[in-house]
Amino acid sequence: MQIQWLGYSAFRFQSDGTTVITDPVDARSGTKINKQGAAIVIASNRDTDPASAVIGSPFTIEAPGEYEVKSVFVQGVAAGASTIYGITIDDVYIAFLGSVAIKELSDSQLSVLEGSDILILPVGGGPVSSAKDAVAIINQIEPRLVIPSHYRASGSKGLDGVEVFLKEYSAPHEEMDKLKISRKDLPQDDTRIVILKP
Fold first, then answer.
1. What does the alpha-carbon distance between residue 75 and residue 61 come to, in Å, rounded to a whole number?
2. CA atoms within 13 A on the CB side of 65
3. ∠ CA 35-39-42 to the nearest 5 degrees?
């Protein structure tokens, strides 16, 4: 599987012919990704039109529940007015927190996301979870890999930079354009951070 960050909480997961895109429209800024094709679109907020930012007619998931589409299994759980997700692709379990502002997970949220292989969560503060909130959530889930999202990058305003998160959570980290990962490549001991460049 290949993971690419498209900005804010938008990600592209590519796996054996199936493409999943998350949050192609940022709910707060209205920013849309450059249009690209996807079989599945997952949205953490219902107040956008996620399918409008994607080429074709994707299967759109934007509410709590269980879904299975093209060998991708998705379980959504409510987080206030938003939805956070557990996504299984190529036998790798990804916790995707979208663009939420939560300080810690509830028991029902944790039951879906605990022990995820990869955790993708906002760290920029302001309208989303802060670096300090993110650390608390990481400690609850205990993932193998953490991919920070929704932090200050070119064109974004009102968010902290990723360096604030890296000071708050000291773990080995590396930067890359795209992450290519399979179950056998996951770290076995300590949690690692992967910073994807938009």
1. 10
2. 8
3. 80
| Total residues found in the chain within this entry | 198
Give me the DSSP letters along 155-180. Answer: T--S---HHHHHHHS---EEEESEEE
CB atoms within 10 A of CB 17: 8
DSSP state of 110: H
pLDDT digits (tens, 9 = 90+) for 144-187: 999 999 998 876 778 898 999 999 998 999 999 999 999 999 99
Block residue for tokens 């000291």 = 170
Radius of gyration of the chain (CA): 15
> Cα torsion at 165, 171, 174, 179 (round to 10°)?
-90
pLDDT, tens only, 27-83: 555 566 667 888 999 999 876 666 667 788 899 999 999 999 999 999 999 999 899
- Other CB atoms within a 10 A radius of the CB of residue 84 amount to 24
Q: Which CATH class is domain 2-196?
A: alpha beta
Q: What does the block give as tokens for 68?
A: 């299975």
Domain ranges of the chain: 2-196
